[in-house]
User: What shape does this take?
Amino acid sequence: EGQILVMSGLKLRIGSAQIGGAFEVVEIGGTGSPLPHVHRDHDECFYIIEGLFTFTLGAEEVEVPADSVVFVPRGTPHAFKHSEGARAIAFVIPANLEGFFRELGEGLAAGRSEADLRATLAGRDDSWPVG
Assistant: This one.
């Protein structure tokens, strides 16, 4: 079933503790889209289940339809937006971003802006704001 991490629709499907930290699986849906950021120690791989995602990878913008895969190697500044109803699965390798997602979700629920939260959380759990 998964556990909601962020009120905008991130759902933890497989957590770090379940598989010894090898990776995490997060379902992306809802209405939220992350601001540009980078991970220094984590790779991310996205499988688009349905809808259309637009990824910004460094300076490049790419439209990604359903049944596509996007790999974001560590060190690559990235962000994405998605169409209404779009869903994707993200594999975080190695695991350990779920703590960041939890803190982000709690802050958003308390009414803080994502930009403010990302600045406050910079470096925790390997998510650094870009721009």
